[in-house]
Amino acid sequence: MAIENLKRLCGWLEMLREVWNERYGEGNEPIIINSGYRSWEVNKRVGGSSTSNHLVGCAADIKCLGKEQALRYAVILMDIADQAQEDYDELIIEVRGSTVWFHFAVRPKGNRRRLLLDIRKK
Description:
By secondary structure, the chain is an alpha+beta fold. Helix content is 38%, strand content 25%. A hairpin with a 2-residue loop joins β3 and β4 (99-105). The longest helix has 22 residues, at 2-23. It starts with a helix and ends with a strand.
């Protein structure tokens, strides 16, 4: 199941990369993935939720150069969802001090279109 979930997720991430490069990139810039599938042990060590989409290969955390890039990623993925008439599960912009990353999740079914901005000082 995790492999099929990862294939679906990677399809969305490839569309994100393509659109990002069309709109803002300089040709073939990568999307930098910090975290994707996690085992139970790894998820526990990083403080992940016991219901994390990472545990079943449905989520990725993407490195961002700042809040603006994270917001642009969110807009691109919302546009893709609208155009394809498909839902995503989560779009979460996470900020810890000067570190910014973007969490994206898409499930096989039961997607919630959850959008969240999570800013903490530490």
